[in-house]
Amino acid sequence: MQEEEILAEFRASQALLEGHFILSSGLHSAHYLQCARVLMDPMRASRLASALASRMPRDIRSQVELVISPAMGGLIIGHEMGRALGVEAMFVERPTGTFELRRGFAVKPGQKVLLMEDVVTTGLSSREAIAAVNAEGGEVIAAGALVDRSAGEVSLGVPFFPLISLNFPTYASDALPPELAAIPVVKPGSRKEALAA
Hints:
Layout: H1 3-12, E1 16-22, E2 28-33, H2 35-39, H3 42-55, H4 58-63, E3 66-70, H5 75-85, E4 88-93, E5 100-101, E6 112-120, H6 124-135, E7 139-148, E8 160-165, E9 170-171, H7 178-181, E10 185-187, E11 193-195
Parallel strand pairs: 3-4, 3-6, 6-7, 7-8
Antiparallel strand pairs: 1-2, 2-9, 4-5, 10-11
Helix pairs in contact: 3-5
């Protein structure tokens, strides 16, 4: 898949939104990618995961024994990456604020893991998930994401393979351009809510 074909998948599913958004990183943006929408079509999710898997170096693909994703955003794409790579997929969640494996999930000592995300902006949640997997005895050998919003700047401590890199500007709340500050802010995701600007 070429970049324009990937963006066409986002547009077709109405997953590329424009307005004033607070990202999970706390930064503000005029663009938001609602990956849940692009992944709600199982065939589209499968195509995107297959495209990403094919872009990963063969030596990395052949080593991956398990895919782990952070809940909630990474669940579907993590599952589809597991399918594309022919390995099991599971997820970490934060019941008390720190990522952990639950629901009977376990990593075998030394098991080679691909960490899979939907969108990476600052990489904080990815690094926290990697630390949780490593603490359980797994070895995260690479990370993947549908979208890298960091403009190629993120460092996860392992090789990182995004399907597409987008360079939408982001802003701290005290450094908003006037045209963005004039638009009501929304914090998208699992709950849509208007916030006071």
